[in-house]
Design a protein that fits this description.
The complex is a heterotrimer. Chain A is an all-alpha fold. Chain A has 9 helices and no strands. Chain A has one domain. Chain A has helices at about 1-20, 25-40, 50-70, 80-90, 95-120, 130-155, 160-175, 175-190, 200-220. Chain A is globular. The mean pLDDT of chain A is about 90. By secondary structure, chain B is an alpha/beta fold. Chain B has 2 domains: about 1-70 and about 200-238, 3-Layer(aba) Sandwich (Rossmann fold); about 75-180, Rossmann fold (3-Layer(aba) Sandwich), CATH 3.40.50.300. Chain B has a 6-stranded mixed sheet, with helices on both faces. A 4-stranded antiparallel sheet of chain B has the order 2-1-4-5, with helices on one face. In chain B, a hairpin with a 2-residue loop joins strand 4 and strand 5. The longest helix of chain B has 16 residues, at about 165-180. By secondary structure, chain C is an all-alpha fold. Chain C has one domain. Chain C is about 80% helix and about 0% strand. Chain C has helices spanning about 1-5, 10-35, 45-75, 75-110, 115-140, 140-170, 185-190, 190-230. Classes of the chains: A mainly alpha, B alpha/beta, C mainly alpha. The interface of A and C includes residues 169 and 203 of A.
Chain lengths: ~220, ~240, ~240
């Protein structure tokens, strides 16, 4: 399909550039692990409170790390006005949106793969068997974050004080994702399975699907030189 | 490519960058777009490229309205600005590969080496663009547009960065495009060279069109208009 | 609907008078005619302001959505004016809702603020409105600002039901909505006089909202007219 071919082409280019410059990934890794250390010294994570506090702390780390990635999302297109080159071309704007979303998603997932086990180690948590399920839920939440984040990153591209404005507009709109993932993660940590939190999972998937569709359709209006 | 522009205008806030601009270009026309800094040349080029939306007026490409631009329309437009639209951290070859894939030019992908050879960059195909001089980047842009085959080619001030052989290369490329029926619009200060190349001259002054005539010998009207509105142009030498 | 805002001063005057009458009637009904609540006493009466103002805040965002959609579709300046005017008045009404909720909360729960569903949702709505208006003002080029804000308006509106659901599921401290309970018809749950008071006040708030909106809209139109004339070079 044409849309996917173009998406893949752009994504390959972004990943190639990232591998060479490694600006975003390294800062995100560093920031994520730094936050974990800060949490370690700030909170006493007693065993009874694990299920309650872990999801929130993890999501704090991911939100801040993800926002870093979002702020840099279109940086690669700034040199030599490459954004103009892309908008000038027959590139489908929906493919542009998907490519940027996937790019940020890949970066965030790479960070999560490291941060979640590190959290377990730093806080001496025992329940390693739930980590894969936790990771799956986190991935779904990350999709929501990246989809909405890419949209808003593009919407705020020309705004002054962008570093402040982007979180300000993004975080309230992210609430369904944050609440859903946290409830699902709590359920997994407590019972080892989704169980009662199934409605939350449905809400999360619904959010992802809705805004992925909206993004592809609306990106044409969002991005301009 | 037949390009018609009708009453095109662009305002930024309360300032008009371009007003009341109209012209009609048949296929093969090579237009010298002249005017002092701030006259609106780059604004016009960007409007024609579809990069900025007009405040008023319309653009018609081959009989079809051009607003946001369909993919087919955009595929036919080229914008050559020295040093621009190239990824610094991709190699020369990777840049060409990326853009030819983006424009879906399957055949062109196989011609990359030939194009690089024609612009004299074959030996530097694996270098990163960041390592190239501005003259070489301009040659790379020429190679890129050779491969992408636009029907409307917009060129913004290329003469500053190119050396003698580079200029010959560019002019041969533009003449070839014109022969194929493409419309070429080139903005520059280097009037003398442009006049030899072009088939038509257009002068912009403070956002307005003040001269639009096909080339003729002798060109007294041009000399008059030029002298009147661009008295400080020193590169003009007959 | 948008045409009605391009009304003369006279029509706005009528709207204003109507709003004033409705407010007075609503106050009368709410404070005097309707009986005091069985459990909460007189303090409950603030509901007659609180519920209509939150409904008006939601209506406001709906108008932002409509204005945003129309603007992206037709690019007519007046749709953009509608959107941001609705947002500005919306911020006002939303902030009002929070203050009222706080005033009600102190005697009822003993605290000025709690994270119950309704208050939280209102606070989130306020943040979204503020974000929208900040986005508009932080982008220099006007058309770009209008387009970006319109996109944000649409995204925000589509997200609000999801935010509503998730916050409600999360917190159920607040009373279950006494009017909108699914098993009974609205008029079975509360005293008819209370319902009337609520309805009148809702109408009053909507009228007040549209009155303020029409003024703000006219102001926006006049500013645009000034800009357009300057652009054309007229004095």
């Amino acid at each position: 399909m044409e849309l996917l071919t173009q998406t893949f082409l752009l994504l390959k280019k972004d990943l190639l550039l990232e591998m060479r410059r490694r600006e975003s990934l390294l800062t995100m890794f560093f920031f994520g692990t730094l936050l974990l250390f800060v949490f370690h010294f700030s909170f006493e994570l007693v065993p009874e409170r694990v299920a309650q506090m872990t999801p929130g702390l993890l999501w704090l780390a991911f939100l801040f790390t993800g926002t870093l990635g979002l702020a840099q999302l279109f940086e690669g297109e700034r040199d030599n006005h490459c954004l103009e080159a892309l908008l000038l071309s027959p590139l489908d704007r929906g493919a542009f949106f998907l490519a940027k979303t996937c790019f940020n998603f890949i970066l965030m997932v790479l960070v999560e793969i490291v941060v979640i086990p590190m959290f377990w180690i730093l806080f001496n948590l025992q329940s390693w068997e739930v980590v894969p399920y936790l990771f799956l839920v986190t991935v779904l939440g990350t999709v929501g974050f990246c989809v909405l984040g890419t949209l808003l990153s593009a919407v705020t591209l020309k705004a002054r004080a962008r570093e402040l404005l982007l979180p300000l507009v993004l975080f309230p709109l992210m609430i369904p994702v944050i609440l859903s993932t946290i409830r699902c993660m709590e359920a997994i940590l407590r019972n080892g399975a989704i169980g009662d939190a199934l409605p939350w999972l449905r809400l999360l998937v619904g959010f992802d699907v809705i805004f992925l569709t909206v993004g592809v359709l609306i990106f044409d209006w969002v991005i301009e030189v | 490519m037949h390009l018609t522009v009708h009453q095109l205008a662009k305002a930024y806030g309360l300032l008009w960058a371009l007003r009341d601009f109209s012209f009609d270009l048949p296929p093969g026309e090579v237009v010298a777009l002249l005017g002092p800094n701030g006259a609106g040349k780059t604004t016009l080029l960007k409007l024609l490229a579809g990069l900025i939306p007009p405040t008023m007026g319309e653009i018609v490409l081959n009989g079809l309205q051009f607003e946001r631009g369909t993919p087919i329309q955009r595929a036919a437009i080229g914008f050559l600005a020295p040093g621009e639209h190239l990824y610094e951290n991709l190699t020369v070859r990777e840049n060409l590969h990326f853009f030819t894939s983006l424009y879906k030019k399957r055949e062109a992908i196989k011609q990359i080496d030939t194009a690089l050879g024609e612009v004299g960059l074959k030996h530097r195909s694996e270098e990163y663009v960041v390592a190239l001089s501005s003259g070489m980047k301009c040659r790379l842009s020429i190679a890129k547009w050779k491969l992408l085959e636009p029907q409307l080619l917009l060129v913004d001030e290329p003469y500053g960065v190119l050396d003698g052989s580079g200029i010959d290369l560019l002019e041969r490329f533009l003449k070839a495009e014109s022969r194929k029926g493409s419309v070429v619009i080139m903005a520059s200060h280097h009037v003398a060279r442009l006049l030899n190349l072009c088939t038509r001259a257009v002068i912009l002054h403070q956002g307005r069109l003040i001269f639009d005539e096909p080339r003729q010998q002798p060109w007294d009207s041009f000399a008059r208009a030029f002298g009147e509105f661009l008295p400080h142009e020193t590169s003009w030498s007959s | 609907m948008v045409e009605s805002f391009k009304s003369s001063g006279k029509r706005k005057g009528y709207l204003g008078a109507l709003a004033l009458i409705a407010i007075l009637v609503g106050l009368y009904w709410g404070l005097l005619r309707a009986p005091a609540d069985a459990f909460q006493g007189e303090v409950q009466r603030i509901m007659y302001l609180h519920i209509p103002s939150i409904l008006t805040a939601y209506l406001s965002f709906f108008l932002v959505f409509v204005g945003s959609c129309l603007y992206l579709w037709k690019r007519e300046k007046r749709d953009d004016i509608l959107a941001y005017s609705a947002a500005e008045i919306g911020v006002l009404f939303t902030a009002l809702t929070i203050v009222e909720g706080s005033i009600w909360g102190k005697p009822t729960w003993g605290v000025w603020w709690t994270w119950d569903a309704r208050l939280t949702l209102t606070a989130i709505l306020l943040l979204i409105f503020v974000g929208y208006l900040m986005l508009r003002s932080l982008i220099e080029e006007e058309n770009r600002a209008a387009v970006s804000a319109a996109v944000l308006g649409i995204i925000g509106f589509l997200d609000i039901p999801l935010i509503h659901m998730s916050v409600y599921w999360w917190r159920t401290l607040h009373q279950p909505p006494s009017i909108l309970r699914p098993d009974k018809a609205p008029w079975d749950n509360i005293h008819p006089a209370m319902l009337t008071a609520l309805a009148i006040n809702f109408v009053a708030f909507v009228l007040l909202y549209f009155y303020l909106l029409s003024h703000r809209f006219r102001l926006g139109e006049m500013l645009e007219e000034i800009k357009a004339r300057k652009l054309r070079g007229e004095p």
